[in-house]
Amino acid sequence: MLKTEYIEYRDGETVLEAYIAYDESVSGKRPCVLVAHDWTGRRDYACAGAERMAEMGYVGFAVDIYGKGVFGKDGDAQGNSALMMPFVEDRTLLRRRMLAALSAAQDQSQVDDGNIAAMGYCFGGMAVLELARSGAALKGVASVHGLLGQGGVSNQPIKAKVLCLHGHDDPMVTPEQVLAFQSEMSSANVDWQVHVDGGTKHAFTNPAANNPEFGTVYSLSATRRAERALSNFFNELFIEMPPLDVAP
Question: Which domain holds residue 145?
Fold first, then answer.
């Protein structure tokens, strides 16, 4: 049975509130997936992502980057940008918030603290990539229509495998930026994947995205592909695969 709850944690003096989901009928510790929110904050969209992780057998931990009770709203680009930009401009702060979430997740009694990954949507994609760039001990990170650019902060060796799910027609992340990201990952000797959907814009997994002029459009087909890719990625990270029986 799916159990959900809110928990408070802190980054210094800032109170944050995560939403966690897990199957309470399962005993023992299990892998955990942090879910980082888009620029509107830790709202229903991110919480639903945590619930999907729980349905896959993990602990879903929807992180809070902005602070308890701090939310934007759909359609308010100016207000959402004001919430997001301090973290875009200060990647050290963003990394610290994500490391605080990682520490809080590791403290949960249901979580196997040696088996943690992270995924994020849009701004959250940037957040999980910065967590990987910090050198955090993660199995992997997945950016879903995320922002890919570096922010001028020195990187530590990346321990995580990296999956990037991207729409080719995303006006916020150009093909040149995707190529630069791929070069960054290769130079860092990361096990990386980039899956690109043609004819697909930003925020393609968000049913509330319906603004072609702004470049945010929901796509059912791209969402289904993303869900399969994420399932395969987390299975690879968390489920030990038996060796291949290769004939001599």
Answer: 2-238
